[in-house]
Amino acid sequence: MKIAITGKGGVGKTTLAATLARLYAAEGRNVLCADADPDANLGLALGFTEAEVASLTPVSQMSDLIAERTGAEKGGYGAFFKINPKVDDIPDRFAIEKNGVRLLVMGTVDSGGSGCVCPESVMLKRVISHLVVARDEVVILDMEAGLEHLGRGTADFVERFIVVVEPGARSIQTYHNVKRLAADLGVNDVKVVGSKVRSADDETYIRERVPENDFLGVIRWSQDILEADKRGVSPYDVGGTAVEDCRAIKSKLDE
Predict the structure, then answer these.
(1) Are strands 96-98 and 101-105 parallel, antiparallel or unpaired?
(2) What is d(CA 98, CA 33) in angstroms, rounded to the nearest whole number?
(3) DSSP secondary-structure letter at 177?
(4) How many CA atoms lie within 13 A of 251 on its CB side?
(5) Is 36 helix (H, G, I), strand (E, B) or coil?
(6) pLDDT score, position 72
(7) Distance CA 82, CA 197 (A)
(8) Less packed terminus of the chain by CB within 10 Å, N or C?
């Protein structure tokens, strides 16, 4: 099972990604999560402590390793470098594990400076491709609203694209944008999960704007999620309606 979860920041995609991961791990499945969102906070949602999360170096910041694997000199922009660097050992070397889930933080490429940042981008895409294509386990990608980490050869192996949306026009527009981007990669199976749903009207709003075949379910607004965030713990460990809703969504995925 390879799942890419996307959506605008703050819509609840990390809650969905983390809870699905914990649910699969509770079944005894091998689970690896990749935090590919620049605003990386998947670790806390999975149940890692702040200190454990701080101990992780994002792949994009492993400058010595990137230089070694790509053959690019640090600071030597414009030179030739490998576009297929060795990455198969990276998840096992650099991921940390807790509650049956392994976590790898991808990071992002800072393009604010001058010069080419292609070696870092190539490294990120190659690692994501390895996770999706070669790993024999449940892989859950917590991504930003774009799909730039994925290429055609990688997207073919993603079994589900899930867009998390709120009951609002801008959020629904994100779903349509992701669906268009996924279609450009040859993927037409894009599902939707409604989040922060407070009423039947909220759910109806989403259902009326999403094809029935694309709709996986909703995560109701819950004080338990806020409580988990305040305490810096996983929503899964707090329990409540959010976990129940994610369990129902997982059942539809498994079908």
Answers:
(1) antiparallel
(2) 11
(3) H
(4) 8
(5) strand
(6) 73
(7) 46
(8) C
**Domain 2-254 = CATH 1.10.10.10:** no
pLDDT beneath 70: ranges in the chain: 40, 73-80, 82, 109-117, 148-149, 152-153
Place of tokens 């995609």: 13
36, 3 Cβ separation under 8 angstroms: no
Q: Which two tokens stand for residue 248?
A: 């129902």
**Six token digits for residue 107:** 């990071």
Which pTM was predicted? Answer: 0.89
Structure tokens at 229: 């965030």
Residues 86-136: pLDDT tens digits?
888 999 999 999 999 999 998 876 544 434 447 777 888 888 888 888 888
Distance (Å, whole) CA 119 – CA 56: 20
Q: List, edge to edge, every strand of the sheet that includes 31-36.
A: 96-98, 101-105, 31-36, 138-143, 2-6, 160-165, 190-197, 215-220
**Cβ count within 10 A of residue 68:** 12
